[in-house]
């Protein structure tokens, strides 16, 4: 069975961050190991309170994973929110150890490192400490196999102003890492993402809802990562991820759910049927 190490937030009462991603990975047959960087009773957006996992505890949790000889079995590393700069350093150290570990008995010959550089968003700007943002930019991003930033985060990572899809593709090329960029400019009344690889740029979109639960970016990252672990080509993994988001949003509206109903959806996340529009960006990959 594939194994995923998720380094991100844990929220008890709401489905966001790592606490959402662990449930999303399960129907794909991927065993999730969540090491929380911060713990909240409810989403901060909904007034929830909590605190960061202190550095000593975070290190002990990571040592516990390594002590069970799991590093050589990790097929997917997902990094998300970090509260403290020391957590970022420890995450980088863990990634190096995972890549150096013997892969005997592992599902895949090498692990995939998927970095969701959670730094902030429009219009609020940064919502992590500046030193966390600096280390994510300088230390963590270079270790990624794939990135899943939103537009604000891509702009922060590259120092570029991004106005349209062509700007997104150029910024990703400047980073030198393939990316699935969420909250991409995909047209009036639509929401979606832009997949950028060295050979192509694809816009994927679905109808935008007036109101939607939080956590769609976390859902995209988890489903996209699951596809990469399965061996899907990036465009197919991205398409399924966007279909899963559209499916979850439609279900949340139909069921009047306050959060993305990922547990109830289960296998529907693996085989989503929601419609997604796919457009190839002119000049993509050139």
From TrEMBL:
Spell out the InterPro entries in the cross-references. Answer: PM/HMP-P_kinase-1, PyrdxlKinase, Ribokinase-like
Short name of one Pfam family for this protein?
A: Phos_pyr_kin
* Superkingdom of the organism of origin: Bacteria
The GO terms describing molecular function are:
pyridoxal kinase activity
Record-listed E.C. numbers? 2.7.1.35
Q: Coiled-coil intervals in this record? A: none
The UniProt keywords, alphabetically, are:
ATP-binding, Kinase, Nucleotide-binding, Transferase
Q: What is its EC class? A: transferase
Q: Which residues form the Pyridoxamine kinase/Phosphomethylpyrimidine kinase domain?
A: 112-255
**Entry keyword Transmembrane:** no
Name this polypeptide is given: pyridoxal kinase
Q: Which organism is it from?
A: Phenylobacterium koreense
């Amino acid at each position: 069975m594939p194994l995923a190490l998720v380094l991100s937030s844990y929220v008890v009462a709401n489905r966001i961050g790592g606490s959402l991603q662990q449930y999303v990975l399960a129907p794909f047959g991927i065993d999730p190991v969540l090491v929380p960087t911060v713990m909240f009773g409810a989403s901060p957006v909904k007034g929830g309170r909590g605190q960061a996992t202190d550095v000593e505890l975070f290190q002990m949790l990571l040592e516990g994973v390594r002590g069970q000889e799991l590093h050589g079995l990790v097929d997917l590393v997902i990094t998300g929110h970090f509260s403290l700069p020391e957590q970022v350093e420890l995450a980088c150290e863990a990634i190096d150890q995972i890549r150096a570990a013997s892969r005997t008995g592992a599902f895949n010959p090498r692990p995939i490192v998927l970095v969701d550089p959670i730094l902030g968003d429009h219009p609020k700007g940064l919502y992590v400490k500046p030193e966390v943002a600096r280390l994510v930019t300088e230390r963590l991003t270079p270790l990624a196999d794939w990135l899943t930033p939103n537009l604000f985060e891509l702009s922060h990572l590259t120092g570029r102003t991004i106005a349209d899809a062509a700007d997104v593709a150029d910024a990703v090329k400047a980073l030198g890492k393939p990316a699935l960029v969420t909250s991409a400019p995909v047209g009036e009344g639509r929401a979606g993402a832009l997949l950028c690889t060295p050979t192509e740029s694809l816009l994927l979109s679905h109808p935008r809802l007036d109101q939607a639960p939080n956590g769609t970016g976390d859902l995209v990252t988890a489903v996209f990562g699951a596809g990469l672990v399965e061996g899907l080509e990036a465009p197919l993994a991205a398409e399924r991820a966007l279909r899963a988001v559209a499916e979850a949003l439609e279900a949340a509206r139909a069921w009047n759910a306050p959060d993305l109903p990922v547990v109830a959806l289960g296998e529907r996340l693996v085989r989503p049927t929601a419609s997604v529009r796919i457009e190839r960006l002119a000049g993509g990959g050139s």
